[in-house]
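Friendly challenge for the regulars: who can give me the structure tokens for this chain first? No prize, just bragging rights.
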Amino acid sequence: MDDAEITGRIGRLVDEEHALLQASEREGGLDEAKHARLRALEVSLDQLWDLLRRRRARREFGRDPDAAKLRDASTVERYTG
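First reply, four minutes later:
Bragging rights claimed.
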């Protein structure tokens, strides 16, 4: 997956996330299925942003960006700021 594909996927997931958040405001919350989907979107977005950052870093330092692979959710979700 190249940078354009990653950013395209991020855009689609962000659009879906915004739609769910707007639905939550209109409906006064989310049912379990929508809440689970929102959480899954957040994890997927974290994974994709992580991948994009690592690809850019590899490129910046003259390394092959294609060597960066999508990390599993448990790795990405353990990050602390």
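The CA atoms of residues 53 and 68 lie 10 Å apart. The chain has one domain: 3-76. Your move, everyone else.
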